[in-house]
Automatic annotation (TrEMBL):
<dbReference type="Pfam" id="PF05191">
    <property type="entry name" value="ADK_lid"/>
</dbReference>
<feature type="binding site">
    <location>
        <begin position="10"/>
        <end position="15"/>
    </location>
    <ligand>
        <name>ATP</name>
    </ligand>
</feature>
<dbReference type="InterPro" id="IPR006259">
    <property type="entry name" value="Adenyl_kin_sub"/>
</dbReference>
<keyword id="KW-0418">Kinase</keyword>
<feature type="binding site">
    <location>
        <begin position="85"/>
        <end position="88"/>
    </location>
    <ligand>
        <name>AMP</name>
    </ligand>
</feature>
<feature type="domain" description="Guanylate kinase-like">
    <location>
        <begin position="1"/>
        <end position="214"/>
    </location>
</feature>
<keyword id="KW-0545">Nucleotide biosynthesis</keyword>
<keyword id="KW-0963">Cytoplasm</keyword>
<feature type="binding site">
    <location>
        <begin position="57"/>
        <end position="59"/>
    </location>
    <ligand>
        <name>AMP</name>
    </ligand>
</feature>
<keyword id="KW-0547">Nucleotide-binding</keyword>
<comment type="subunit">
    <text>Monomer.</text>
</comment>
<comment type="function">
    <text>Catalyzes the reversible transfer of the terminal phosphate group between ATP and AMP. Plays an important role in cellular energy homeostasis and in adenine nucleotide metabolism.</text>
</comment>
<feature type="binding site">
    <location>
        <position position="161"/>
    </location>
    <ligand>
        <name>AMP</name>
    </ligand>
</feature>
<feature type="binding site">
    <location>
        <position position="36"/>
    </location>
    <ligand>
        <name>AMP</name>
    </ligand>
</feature>
<protein>
    <recommendedName>
        <fullName>Adenylate kinase</fullName>
        <ecNumber>2.7.4.3</ecNumber>
    </recommendedName>
</protein>
<feature type="binding site">
    <location>
        <position position="92"/>
    </location>
    <ligand>
        <name>AMP</name>
    </ligand>
</feature>
<dbReference type="GO" id="GO:0005737">
    <property type="term" value="C:cytoplasm"/>
</dbReference>
Amino acid sequence: MRIVLVGPPGAGKGTQATRLAEKLRIPHISTGDLFRANISRQTELGKLAKSYMDAGNLVPDEVTIAMAKDRMEQPDAEGGFLLDGFPRNVSQAQALDELLETEGIELDAVLDLEAPEDEVVKRIAGRRICRKDSSHVFHLTYSPPAKEGVCDVCGGELYQRDDDSEETVRKRLEVYHTQTEPIIDYYKAQGLVVTITATGRVEEVTGRALEALKRDK
Ligand code: AP5
Ligand code: ZN
């Protein structure tokens, strides 16, 4: 399957993508994780991306699209993929459509995770991620690690993302409403959008997502 995951910051895209990718046996491609990996390796792309991310803005389309395209062309993505955080505006969605058309493939669904703003703010405030692998995600209240400050999966150090400060989160939410939400209408016009409620326990949301994706087929 080829799926795009969309939803506000803190809706649980990363959390659900990890679980869905495993169940559906497709790679989880997160542009946020790819940028963070570049930041920790201190690449030129990482340095550029960090300046935008820390301000809560989108990284310029040109570099983002090139990075996403490169990742989608890796052999493990041939049979399908789950895109998390890409596309994030209408021009990225158009670029993705062009890329898919060139390859002669199509998206199966755009899964839209809906969560109220006060909930996503709480989720982001308590989020801690692993320095070794940013797909290892915890929450101080909702899914605390067994040992404070230490990743249960790999023993890495847990930290709070630089862009998770209250001020930057407000900016990211504004960017989501103005730039990312319009892609939902863009994909509705293609009949691809399935919307689910992203509140409740993590497993419940995964169950809802799998049901919705099945129903859609
Ligand atoms: P990105 O990394 O994509 O961040 P985001 O979209 O803001 O989303 P988050 O990672 O904050 O939240 P999430 O929905 O994944 O939630 P999570 O599962 O962690 O992007 C970061 C930045 O990179 C952007 O601002 C931009 O600068 C740049 N960027 C990325 N892609 C780009 C693109 N295409 N174009 C341009 N720029 C781009 O969950 C949050 C917390 O809640 C966790 O602690 C988790 O444990 C907890 N939680 C999850 N589900 C539940 C639940 N059901 N119940 C209780 N707690 C839960
Ligand atoms: Zn870890």
